[in-house]
Amino acid sequence: MCTKTIILLVEDNEDEVALTRRALRRESMSFELVVARSGIEALDYLFGMGSYFGRDLSVQPSLILLDIKLPGMSGLDVLQRLRMDPRTRLIPTVMLTSSDEHSDVVESYLRGANSYVRKPIDFNEFANVVRQLGGYWLEWNLVP
User: Fold this and answer.
1) Who has greater pLDDT, 127 or 141?
2) Which of 133, 140, 70, 20 is nearest to 81 (CA)?
3) What is the pLDDT of residue 144?
4) Sequence-separated (6 or more) residues with CB below 8 Å from residue 15
5) pLDDT, tens digit, for every residue of 28-66?
6) Is 92 in contact with 114 (CB distance < 8 Å)?
């Protein structure tokens, strides 16, 4: 059985989506990037609701890259919802955000984030961070 590697990027800023997509393309990892532009869209994708109704829920992302500041529902609220459901509880979720507020870091870990990474402004640094995230969470880390 072949399992498809999916990365779910939850990001509303088109420039950040483009940068992340570009950084991930530089890597040799084989994956599908799914982009959700709001917290609600991310939950719809993960739980097969809304425009994703009928999606095969047995195929879930191997990694979620989640921004904090999203329209409609914050990334922190999305994270809390993920950790409450047995279907998504164990999906590695990295807060990938521009926020360096201490309260966001603490709250992310309290709600079950696996990691908190502040987005570097420089593209080369950003690409390096994304490469390391992909390598760690998709290649080296053992999952249950």
Assistant:
1) 127
2) 70
3) 66
4) none
5) 567 889 999 999 999 999 999 999 999 999 999 999 999
6) yes
How far apart (Å, rounded) are the C-alpha atoms in residues 127 and 133?
10
* Helix (H) / strand (E) containing 32: strand 32-36
Nearest to 64 by CA among 80, 79, 47: 79
Q: How far apart are CA 110 and CA 131, in angstroms?
A: 26
Residues 94-104: tens digit of each pLDDT: 999 989 899 99
Is 128:109 a contact under the CB 8 Å cutoff? no
**By three-state DSSP, how is residue 116 classified?**
strand
Task: For helices 14-25 and 123-134, give the axis angle rounded to 10 degrees.
Answer: 60
Output the pLDDT for position 2.
Answer: 47
- At position 113, the amino acid (one-letter code) is A
- Strand pairing report for 115-118 and 93-97: parallel
Task: Work out the angle at residue 30's Cα, subtended by the Cα atoms of residues 118 and 85, and round it to the nearest 5 degrees.
Answer: 60
